Amino acid sequence: MKPSKAPAIDDLRRLYKARVPRMFYEYCETGSFTTQTFQENTKAFSKFKLRQRVAVNIDGRSLKTKMVGQDVAMPIALAPVGSAGMQHADGEILACRAAQKLGVPFTLSTMSICSIEEVAKHCDKPFWFQLYVMRDRSFATDLVNRAKAAKCSALVLTLDLQILAQRHFDVKNGLSSPPKLTLPNVLNMITKPAWCLEMLGTTNRQFGNIIGHAKDVKDLSSLNEWANSQFDQTLDWNSVDFIRKQWSGKLILKGINDVEDAKIAAKLGADAIIVSNHGGRQLDGGPSTIEMLAPIVDAVGDKVEVHIDSGIRTGIDVMKAMALGAKGTYIGRAYIYGLGAAGEAGVTRALEILRKELDTTMALCGETDIRKVGRHNLLGFDVAAKSRSSKR
Known about the structure:
With 392 residues, the protein is an alpha/beta fold. It has helices spanning 9-19, 22-28, 36-43, 84-87, 91-101, 116-122, 137-149, 168-173, 183-190, 193-200, 220-230, 237-244, 259-266, 289-300, 315-323, 333-364; strands at residues 65-67, 70-72, 76-78, 107-108, 128-131, 154-158, 250-256, 272-275, 305-308, 329-331. Helices cover 42% and strands 10% of the residues. The termini are far apart. Residues 384-392 have low confidence and may be disordered.
């Protein structure tokens, strides 16, 4: 099957698995420790049922809305994904182009292969940048300044990576960028000739935002030592204030999956929070994000814009998240499947699939405007008591 003909995101996943080396597929398609939370993120969407409505005029539908004040063609953004440039050569550039052509935001990870400057050079419009605050605060300050220079239109500050949870497959595969040329890795890469040829054709093969920018990090060996020492276990809410003072643009706080944390975040002057558990790659055994969305919206939805990531694989998932009160959703793995399968065209196809699924689902629920979707579109909710999400 050609990626352009793929009818569903899972079809892109199968094409992706066949095309990229095992270590990068398993980096994307697994979670931490037992992977319980990783699996629950997708399964939990089935707990929420949509109301089918009929004999409603559904002509002239619109998926257009805003995320942190930015016009978007549909309430979907591309989430920050580390090492996207190892899923496909120049992956971050290609994904950003696809997102911008379809009118949705792209978020570049601190741990991207293509640097902020490389992506800005090859893309016409501003994109969002995701920041990890490292122990070296001067490096964090430098990243913020580089994002400003690249005219990034929003900063996404990740709060849930003070310590790195173990992902067993990454350890077994000896994950690195570029991949270490061990015998198992070489034998596996031989079976992926198209991927190898593409990677040979680009100079973007290492973490472009770090190598040559972080103190004493000049190559892969020094990068590994630096990264292992830089995740900042002292990061607290004061660190958010530290970043807020340096960034005057739109600020989004990512990694909120608890009501009490959401209340604190809402008081800090952020423009939005992302209900997120890092795609099930950090705390294993915690709740799925879709289960936490409604309680968080009810607690802070009138004070801060609430977005969600983790587990979104279909346009139906997006519809359910919007009905529960989210004002935006983020896809990571769903677009990576497309990227690995066919580069920019694959990301475009992933977004087209989600757009069609969302539009069709909204129509079958009797709605014509995504901004008016709310709890009334779900079974089992007391609409009178829980209608804040529909008052947009």
